[in-house]
Fold these 4 entries.
Entry 1:
Amino acid sequence: MDVKVNKKLGLKERYALMTRGLGWDTTYQPMDKVFPYDKFEGIKIHDWDKWEDPFRMTMDAYWKYQAEKERKLYAIIDAFAQNNGHLGVTDARYINTLKLFLTGISPLEYMAHRGFAHVGRQMRGVGPRVACLMQSLDEIRHAQTQIHSMSNYNKYYNGFHDPMHMIERVWYLSVPRSFFDDAYTAGPFEFMIAIGFSFEYVLTNLLFVPFISGAAYNGDMGAMTFGFSAQSDEARHMTLGLECIKFMLEQDPDNLPIVQRWIDKWTWRGTRVLTLVGMMMDYMLPKRVMSWKEAWEIYFEQNGGALFNDLARYGITVPKCAAQAALDKEHVSHQAWATFYQYGAAADFHTWMPSSSEMDWLSEKYPNTFDKYYRPRFEYFAEQHKAGNRFYNLTLPMLCQTCQIPMLFTEPADPTKICYRESDYKGEKYHFCSDGCKEIFDHEPEKYIQAWLPVHQIHQGNCFDPGVDPAAPGFNPLAAVLDHYHINQGRDNMEFEGSEDQRNFAAWRTMAAKN
Ligand code: FE
Ligand code: ZN
């Protein structure tokens, strides 16, 4: 349908015509039948026109802006690839962060694309529909630009070959994946808080600003470019999430307790997923810009604190879990890396122990915890490796029913004791890593008892390829599971020292500098 726009119209009227003016109320079918989902969560909306569009962007302007960004992005990516930019990164350990990014984060961008397309269809107000449409397009752009940038590494290094297969199966990838599965099996308003608030405001800010600065610092212009190009869309996304929260709170006082519960839940879920980013920053970047703890203080405690001050006038309070997160910031990256180091035989990237100068950096950044709790363990691992006993844990850990992270976190008040919580539901026992995860389960047990937990699935025999016989003599369950994950054993996984990636990188770099 052509919309004739009179050039003499003011900006505001023009914007209204090209967005709100495109909506209509249905007559052949009742609106409630056309939009069946935007009421069942209990959120009450009285006037959809009160929705504010902070960016006042029309579709034609959107395409122009995005096309401009794409042109710059692909020019840089091409130049980086053609100049063998991958040989300019600090050292080959860095490349492992990209494997975790490509397998654990880029598929989420695609899931966000699908989620916003779905939610945009379910909102009967035109304002949020247009905003969701743009975000849906942004998200597929993020998935594509990340895959395109990192495909260059797939020509030279192991572990980049199967992200979309792995996200559905591999044990640690079920952590970010279950976050998104949880979000897009919720109603449209909860999805907006889960992604628009928790994912965009809590999570991607920490990923795209300090972590991507780290990528730039380590010489990776490809990751830097896709990261900053995505981050320029994030301003719009964060505003959308925030606008949605404010809109709900302004529409009806009954919405407050529902919104508060979602904010509490999704802040905790986002915080748990960020454990992976903490580990990437403290252990996987050879050159570090800042510690995980510092990043958490700037981007969550300070920036997030300002956000909660802003929301206080609506009656929103800081999530309870913030108190635990303030203690956890001293620990989670070390605990996660210790776990991945031990389970490095079942990962799609390499693991290693930090060098002694890197341990000194950690001591300096974590004066309260690193020397006391983690250094002795890491020095012991390193000694064992030197003596020819590189340790691999071949058992299967218990997982948290909600966040799906192995039970590796400690009690908030006692860093020497693993934190366990449990709930009984319909005659079964369920296990949790924290009070936050237990509360989320207890509120909606029917949802979380359906969780696809990788360890349970392995025990039930659901992670072997068709035709594999677990009763055959000499059956090796770990090897069969890795085959099912498409992890190439001895190439994609295990210790970094001596890996094919390490050797190739060193050889190619030497060749680049010599005749
Ligand atoms: Fe994105
Ligand atoms: Zn948990």
Note: Residues 355-390 form one domain.
Entry 2:
Amino acid sequence: SAAATSPPPRRDFISVTLSPEEAVGAGGYNNSKAWRRRSCWRKWKQLSRLQRSVILFLFAFLAVCGVISYTSMGEPWKSLTNKSLDDQRTEPEVPGLKLANPAVLPAPQKADANLGDYAELSPQKLPKPPHVWRGPSNLQIKPPRRDVRLKTRHDTSRVVEEQVQADKEEKTEKSIISWRGAVIEPDQSTEPPSSKIKEPEKPSSVEAEDQKEPVPINERQMAVIEAFRHAWKGYKDFAWGHDELKPLSKSYSEWFGLGLTLIDALDTMWILGLKEEFEEARKWVANDLVFEKNVDVNLFESTIRILGGLLSTYHLSGDSIFLEKAKDIGNRLMPAFKTPSKIPYSDVNIGRGTAHPPRWTSDSTVAEVTSIQLEFRELSRLTGDEKFQKAVDEVMKHVHTLSGKNDGLVPMFINTNSGQFTHLGVYTLGARADSYYEYLLKQWIQGGKKENELLEDYMRAIEGVKKHLLQKSQPKELTFVGELAHGHFSAKMDHLVCFLPGTLALGAHNGLTADHMKLAEALVETCYQMYAQVETGLSPEIVHFNLHAQKGHKDVEIKPADRHNLLRPETVESLFYMYRFTGDKKYQDWGWEILQNFNKYTRVPTGGYTSINNVQNPSNPEPRDKMESFFLGETLKYMFLLFSDDIDLINLDKYVFNTEAHPLPIWVPA
Ligand code: DMJ
């Protein structure tokens, strides 16, 4: 029939047939899942194709929006969660230091998201082939870049200004965080670096490739080069390949028998542009430096001088021989960590692979076990072998949790069996504790300012210094750092403490509170006075400050046992940081005075410089007949850098100096 052949009429209605259950009584309500599913499905089938497409498109659109907004919100949530966990772990509060806003922590910026895993650092350019002298890489002599330097100095004051703002306006918490008294740039995550290392890193001699205009060397720098050459002549003539020059007896002394002065001086030669000297020393390293020796070395000293020196020279020169040697000595030092507590022994036999504490004790020195981290961490990054970093990180984590600290100040000894501090109650920023504080800050900087426990310990310690160790002398009211022994304050200050102004300034440059810069300014003045108030214009090893004004007395008193000078670097080191960050020429002038006095009282005519026994006797300073390796490794290097106006000559946003003045790259440069 027609009805059977013609197409069905277009339906303008939807017919709905109710099944008995669906009708559950008239107007009955059935909300069972099965009913709802079937009903929805039917309705869906009854929609036109266009209607279905529109609905599907809407769903797809909403899903895409959902995914996008989830990923962009995820990080802040993760960050907040991590923060609150961190806060729970962190005990006790630093006195006087409170979280400005504990609930707010900025999300790590995208670029930093993976930086906890230092294997994923942005790739660095490959070095040029080894053995080719390229001059002092990014240390090539360039014109003073005042624009850049001004920018750097401005950066510090910007942080200060922002801190003031932050106090006034809560809003600023997004651009700057106040964290336990520290002002930190907002691009820092809370995640500690992963201990996994995936790929070895390349040397950092990246800017060697940048052909920047050379900066002419100024007269004062020339004087440093002359001093270095004179020292080197003595070493070459009488001590070549040995540890230290004895310039008066024209011989040498051995400590480890590893050419200590030569290795310590390698990167200084590179920085000073001493091509011939460098090449000759390189040959010695390649052909004659052998670690397969039955000799006991001090873990700390060989790490900061030898491992540190080799690593930094590798970075500056790009020459793989230095990395090979660094790996070799690094591996040979590892047995030191095989102790019941994992706090390393002080001594290792690098030939036998055995380690032991000093004969008279099972203690190690706190500064020694906590000032090898920059070097071992860098060795892990370069080799891709995590064992070096793991060993030293474990020490830091352990020390972080220890009791026996006094407002962040640490005792001087730690037991390798129990892992506990010993000889409690004595606190100093001088010998045996000094570089513990220095390396807290510097590790934090090296790792990209993420390892909050390090920063926390550093900030707490500086508060401890302020609370227990700072006093003013008479008559000049010099701020100095004394010592505390079982509750008794002593106005004694080691020259070694003069690293502190430089470290404080470095912290302030990296966004920490401006108070630290103020303290640095006061302390560096004191360190300079430790030279200026002495007859030879050279500082003794230890001074005692006068707390009460006495007629005819200066601020600085010197005991007969303390009046030697070992050509130490700490004051010049701090002058260098202060000049870099402030541009105040007085710091250069002070350094220049010191160099002249070294030349006057410690220079040996036949080559080399010598430590002296009596800084108070200009007519006979009593030469000791020894040139310490750090005179070439540190003192002259910091002098040269102090007199330079080129902030790219070891840029402090790219490199961090180890405690022996060997620059190592910052993993996440600013
Ligand atoms: C150097 O070996 C290092 O600077 C160390 O941190 C302290 N002692 C000397 C220099 O004085």
Note: Confidence is low (pLDDT under 50) at residues 1-36, 71-196.
Entry 3:
Amino acid sequence: MSGKTESVSRGRCLIGGRWVAPASGETLPVICPSDGRVFAEIASGGPADIDAAVAAARRAFEKGAWGRLPAFERGRLLMRLSAAILDHVEELAEIESRDTGKPLSQGRADIRACARYFEYYGGAADKLHGDTIPFLEGYTAASFWEPHGVTAHIIPWNYPAQIFGRSIGAALAAGNACVLKPAEDACLSLLRIAELMQEIGFPEGALNIVPGPGEEAGAALAAHPGIDFISFTGSPETGTAIQAAAARNHIGCTLELGGKSPQILFADADLEAALPVVVAAIVQNAGQTCSAGSRVLIEKTVYEEVTARLAARFRELVAGPHDRDLDLGPLISRRQMERVRGYLGEARERGIPVLAEGRLAADLPPGGYYVPPVLLGPVPASERLACEEVFGPVLACLPFADEAEALALANATPYGLVAGVWTADGSRQLRLAHGIRAGQVFVNGYGAGGGIELPFGGVGRSGHGREKGFAGLYEFVKLKTVVWNHG
Ligand code: NAI
Ligand code: MG
């Protein structure tokens, strides 16, 4: 890894095609969550760097080579980037895994997903067709999709490469020039991918990156009068600030703010198929996934059997350092570890039974941010654990009596991102798919984080707007109507 820490992007911002030191001259330490040690540094960017990045993006969009590139050429560049990412899977997976603490095989899957986003949106770049519209006699009317211009992207640390791919891939495919403020807790993989973009020959200023603290670089970007749209993924609290900033500049935004997504298990479900998926959906990335399946609603007649079988699986789970590639890694930071422990401490104080706990690997490096997976239940629906996002490997079990109660519980949080419905009854599948308040419903399956092609996003506290799929692409364009009066 030591060679990689020397790469040109370390401690720098990407502005107008050049890697430059931030105006402050300062850096932020990059910590490996597996041992709590500093192993690299990133730029500590601020408002002056954001100003420069927005100006560079504007130039690229209005006067630069990027803005003049035909759609199919943009698509080709994106697909070339996808291939380059795949050529560097091992290097990038190692970076991602060390930076976030996630097991190496999850890092690898994330890098492959990132490549897939660039491939998908690369292929879509020249397929944003407009419409002709039947109108009055003597007129021809048509609508065209146009890029917003300069798009701002503020993304979190849980899936740096994947969220980079889905957000930047779509925005560039649509023809925007981008300014990205990645998360201070993890962004090395996307900095390395930006180096690859430079090597491939992306025109200068198409993508600009200013790493730095959220309250400084992030807030300056969200409030900047030179941006035309904001794409944000992160906490509801920051999402509120982002939307307020967008409102002051009269621009749009998409907010993807996480969830408290339920998996609903009916007695007639194929438990053999369901239970491994239920476990994986909370263990993946140590539960730090916006779409983690963090609640499991279980029909009462099978509650004892299901919780016993889930408990048996939980006891087998092992958390440890990213490079040992176990079931799960550490949490991202001391702060997140303390937050998750806070929820667990409160649950114990309030008498919520712990049904099972996983293990920590032997010989853990001291200083890592480890929390073993925990299964709790029954969790009363009014408890914080039943309705707040923990963002850790913590699964809450809630029994229900019938379909009506299952639906009421599923919809009983302020969130609405994803849900899983497990039942053999086809009519019930459809009733619940329609009744559940969420952006995605999986029937007899669950996809935490997967599905590049599948529109994804929330309602309520989970945010608004859609990412992934073609819907994600359409967020990055606006419609212009043109009317000809030709008599
Ligand atoms: P956060 O929302 O503060 O951070 C996300 C991004 O926003 C980062 O790039 C950060 O630098 C930036 N940011 C922070 N404050 C900002 C501001 N005032 N203006 C502009 N940008 C700002 O989330 P954080 O603090 O890392 O995590 C807290 C909780 O948020 C987690 O425990 C989890 O529940 C939730 N979360 C949800 C995510 C999701 O995938 N939907 C991802 C990360 C966190
Ligand atoms: Mg924060």
Note: The domain at 3-257 is CATH 3.40.605.10 (Aldehyde Dehydrogenase; Chain A, domain 1).
Entry 4:
Amino acid sequence: MQYRIMEAAAIIGRSQRLVVLTGAGMSKESGVPTFRDEDDGLWTKYDPAELATPEAFQRDPRLVWEWYTYRREIVRQAAPNPGHYALVELEDLLPQVVVITQNVDDLHQRAGSSDVIPLHGAIMRSRCTADCRGGPTAFSSEAPVKDGLPRCPYCGALARPDVVWFGENLPAEALLRAMIVTQEADVMLVVGTSGVVQPVAALPSLAFRAGATLIEVNPNASAITSLAALWLDGPAGEILPQLVAAIRARRGGQ
Ligand code: BV8
């Protein structure tokens, strides 16, 4: 592995336009369960893809809110891990580090990454189901509650978590920018994603076809691994700090 880390450090250390694509595995070492791991929590009997949908919310808003309240508590207790901080350190070493994330926690932002494109929304934010102010009306998670369900503070309509559910479009501007920086990237570092959820899962092949070098950090193989020039098969919280240290070493310890 050490040799592959050195190789990856040489490639990333030369990058002028680095894009980092992260998934749930990035936050695993912060204690935030991934989507498809065998979680031993209350939710093993529910399939997230069944709960993270507008239909599920329509059918049983109370159950969906229970799930999101449970997950918000986990995110509240979580802290960025050394992997998140390593990505922040890369910003001192490279001209560009853009983080495209599928994660709905705010750990990249809390760690201090300065350019994050969240494509699946933010779990700690809520939004009005009636878009009462003429467009997505987002507000903090401390919404007023009526009949046990969070309400929009402006119009009283039912509130929902401000995340992108399966079957919903991604925020158009964020997705457009993600596609642009992906096509311009010279290196894409893909961290902690199984690479199954579209359209984000198409970004690595978009980068690859545009000539970028892909490097993957994931303890398991994923749908991306076949595109990667290097697969660093270990946990993000361990591998990413080693990558940064190797880049610094190549620069005489700067
Ligand atoms: C859309 C927010 C247009 C909510 C999420 C059939 C074929 C192809 C596509 C589709 C299809 N049917 C439907 C679709 C489209 C669908 C889709 O892709 N479905 C999949 C399941 C096939 N996509 C959509 O619906 C998207 N919208 O397409 O709009 C449209 C419009 C109308 C009708 C149709 C289409 C919206 C997708 C967004 C869904 N929302 N999250 C919430 O969080 O509550 S997705 C959810 O999955 C999370 O955001 C999560 O981040 C994301 C992706 O999963 P991963 O991040 O990869 O996480 P996962 O658990 O899978 O993997 C973790 C990885 O980490 C593993 O590889 C593991 O090995 C690794 N790991 C573990 N530990 C570590 C680690 N890595 C590093 N370090 C560690 N320590």
Note: The two ends are 23 Å apart (CA to CA).
